[in-house]
Amino acid sequence: MLRVPAVLKPIASILHQAGYCCYLVGGAVRDMLCGRRVTDLDLATDATPQTVMKLFRRVIPTGIEHGTVTILFKGRQYEITTFRSDGDYGDGRHPQRVDFTRSIVEDLGRRDFTVNGMALEVREKRLIDPFDGRGDIRRRLIRAIGDPEQRFSEDSLRLMRAVRFAVQLEFSIDATTHAAIRRHSDGIRRVSAERIRDELSKMLVERDAAGGLRIMRETQLLRHLLPELLEGIGVPQDSQAAPDVFEHLLLTLNGADPQRLDMRWAALLHDVAKPRCVQSDSAGALHFYGHDTLSAEMASAILVRLRYPRRLTEHVAHLIRHHMFDYSSTWNDAAVRRFVARVGPHAVDDLLLLRAADSYGKSGRRRADPAINELRRRVAAVVQQEQALSIRDLAVNGNDLQREIGIPSGRDMGTVLRFLLESVLDDPAQNERQRLLTIAERFYRERIAGPRQR
Ligand code: ATP
Ligand code: MG
């Protein structure tokens, strides 16, 4: 299973000829042993960064203060890091000093988890595994190297890395390591929002992302990072497969496309405000009036807090705001057009995907929903026919209305244009310059200018 990628041989022999060694380290060794696709090939050597810079022709000193240089070799980039032993960690995130060492075992000892603490000697294909990473791969365990208490107090990012690797590899977290994460969970507050965002993003696009949120709940990380989700624990809702809002959100999350981070967030947060909106009527039935709007606001606040790009945040909030539509076959074509106009042609497909995830979150089963399939077909027809769906698509614009009818620009103009759009959504045949001018004129005189004069 351990095949040294051929491209590493010439790199290693440059180092060997100069009297240094060359190891493949970290994620690549782990992923090879797990039978997973290997992405980056990270190398470690006892040569100093200055020496590495001299030995290779095309090098970039990407992280020279940490001993890392990037070499460009046959069109690809490789990071080579000099064996390190980290000094004390002052701020719970970064070592105060980095010392170089001649020992690969010492270098592996500063790494976070046993599965990440292995090295493959490139020339002899020898595996260096001082912390039994291979055993933990067999046992499917994430286990801290050395004393977990110390390792998590050194660097709080490791708290989230443990969860993320557990989800990515579909491993459990070793009990002692798990207990240490829980004990040190409040350290996560020292980690920058950007780093937390990146860990959460990697976790959320895995098949069983919900499993990661469960670990975060057990270890208290959720209380610090996404406390809003905990409000749903014990709040019942209409779903056979999930006892409460919290479980419904986790199930919906797993029901969404794992390749789509935005859909995963929309699924996880679509009902997040339900606990704040719950009301019971005189018959004892629960209602969550307004939870779509408030969930969209809460989702937006959460994603801004995690420093997600505005595009993603807005799209997720938009989907959540519109997720409560209630389709039935009795909708006429105008109703379908109004639905597409309200949601926007750019978002309507995703909204139907969110609905599919939501019904998985209720039933725990993936089944085709004939009504939603019908709506999808009808929406596609509307979008394909390029019928007018927004004011921009109308056959007249504000300038026309001002010039031809004398409507002043401003609020009244907006009212008239919206009325025209309503008319065209009702009947696309109206979308013609002369007809729209006639409608606009009548509407303006009878409903806006006229009543004002009376
Ligand atoms: P992936 O790149 O797939 O997320 P990886 O294992 O390559 O996984 P990186 O973040 O690229 O993870 O780090 C490379 C290696 O550096 C890790 O395998 C681990 O040995 C070490 N490492 C990274 N971050 C830390 C950390 N915070 N504490 C200790 N060791 C770390
Ligand atoms: Mg990596």
Task: Explain how this protein is built.
This protein has 454 residues and is α+β, with helices and mostly antiparallel strands. The protein has 4 domains: 6-136, 2-Layer Sandwich (Beta Polymerase, domain 2); 140-225, Orthogonal Bundle (Hydrophobic Seed Protein), CATH 1.10.110; 256-386, no CATH class; 391-453. It is 52% helix and 10% strand. It is built from 23 helices and 13 strands. The chain has helices at residues 8-17, 27-34, 49-55, 104-109, 133-139, 148-154, 157-169, 175-183, 193-204, 209-218, 221-225, 227-230, 245-255, 261-269, 274-277, 291-305, 310-321, 333-343, 348-363, 370-384, 398-405, 411-426, 433-453, and strands spanning 23-25, 42-45, 59-63, 68-73, 76-82, 84-86, 98-100, 119-121, 126-128, 141-142, 172-173, 279-280, 286-287. A 7-stranded mixed β-sheet has the order 3-4-5-2-1-8-9. Strand 8 and strand 9 form a beta hairpin. The longest helix is centred in the C-terminal third of the chain and has 21 residues, at 433-453. It is elongated and about 95 Å long. 38% of the residues are buried. The mean pLDDT is 95. Bound molecules: adenosine-5'-triphosphate and magnesium ion. The site of magnesium ion has 2 residues, from loops.
